[in-house]
Specification:
Its EC number is 5.4.2.11. With 249 residues, the chain is α/β, with parallel strands linked by helices. The protein is built from 7 helices and 6 strands. Helix 2 packs across helix 3. The site of 3-phosphoglyceric acid has 11 residues, from helix 6.
């Protein structure tokens, strides 16, 4: 048995609002048919690579939960334990939730658009609790109290995600086991930044494609071995990540 643990990071398949090019954040939209197919394809990639998850962690958002279910169904691992946490949710996009990315770029210009979308520590304006795209009062977040975000930057995501990573995910990352984390573009950027030691400036250039497994072998200290994370289909992942980078243009 390997002395390493295997981590599989999987961003949800294309969502309804990904397809419409809308800022999504914590708005609980579903997958498109293309997104469902991406999730199944991600599971088939795991099967072909012989990667059989022993436990799965997801956010509380249906696009990640459904992606995990479809991918695990494709690899006959639908029966494994599942753990869910808001700490794996997508970055809360504040008052940008529901707004068109192209219109936002046109209205606020390149610098402000990129600051809100990809800077490390500049959050969008907070969302009003009365907004139709606010999550205030939803039962799944009832326990958050004052921790309930109204907007987040990537630094905020890292601060609320790492406690879960260091406790719940780390506890499952034992030698010889495979852990699937089905989450979101920015919560996975937070994990990759942590694992790869990417600087606060360089992280702006990292984009995660939908539905494509990113695999790490982690040592006993949960540090990546070898060359770090690897996509099972690197060429397709690079092309899809470039498309994510160009959203709004
Ligand atoms: O929440 C969203 O809008 C997307 O899932 C991530 O969007 P981004 O790639 O623009 O951060």
């Amino acid at each position: 048995m390997s002395e390493n643990a295997t981590l599989v990071l999987l961003r949800h398949g294309e969502s309804d609002w990904n397809a419409k090019n809308l800022f999504t954040g914590w708005v609980d939209v579903d997958l498109t048919e293309k997104g469902r197919a991406e999730a199944l394809a991600g599971g088939q990639q795991l099967r072909e690579a012989g990667l059989l998850p022993d436990v799965v962690h997801t956010s509380l958002l249906r696009r990640a939960i459904t992606t995990a279910h479809l991918a695990l169904d494709a690899v006959d691992r639908h029966w494994i334990p599942v753990r869910r946490s808001w700490r794996l949710n997508e970055r809360h996009y504040g008052a940008l939730q529901g707004k068109d990315k192209k219109q936002t770029l046109a209205e606020f210009g390149e610098e402000q658009f990129m600051l809100w979308r990809r800077s490390f520590d500049v959050p969008p304006p907070p969302i009003d609790d009365g907004s139709e795209f606010s999550q205030a009062g939803l039962p799944q977040y009832a326990d958050l109290g004052d921790e309930m975000p109204r907007t987040e930057c990537l630094k905020d995501v890292i601060a609320r995600l790492l406690p879960y990573w260091n406790s719940d995910v780390a506890a499952d990352l034992t030698p010889g086991r495979t852990v699937l984390v089905a989450a979101h573009g920015n919560s996975l950027r937070a994990i990759v930044k942590h694992l790869d030691g990417i600087s606060d400036d360089d992280i702006a250039g990292l984009n995660i494609p939908t539905g494509m497994p990113l695999v790490y072998e982690l040592d006993a200290d949960l540090r990546p071995t070898g060359d770090g994370g690897r996509y099972l289909d690197p060429a397709a992942a690079a092309a899809a990540a470039a498309a994510v980078a160009n959203q709004g243009r």
